[in-house]
Design goal:
single chain; 59 residues; 3 helices; 0% strand; transmembrane helix; cell membrane; transmembrane; Phospholipase_D-nuclease N-terminal
């Protein structure tokens, strides 16, 4: 049972990170800012997602 729960949580986490990357890509931020945000989200998923929620491009 633990493997299924862990797999489900991992899938949910992956969906959240992908959603954040799509939101960054569609934002009005400049190209370099988008690239930096996407790299932060990819390489530091937990901290990057928190920082993006607080300081990321809006819109």
């Amino acid at each position: 049972m633990g493997i299924e729960v862990g797999g489900l949580l991992g899938l949910i986490w992956l969906i959240i990170v992908i959603w954040a990357i799509v939101k960054v890509a569609k934002s009005s931020a400049g190209g370099l800012a988008k690239l930096i945000w996407i790299l932060v989200l990819l390489f530091f998923p937990l901290i990057g997602l928190i920082i993006w929620f607080l300081f990321g491009p809006k819109g």
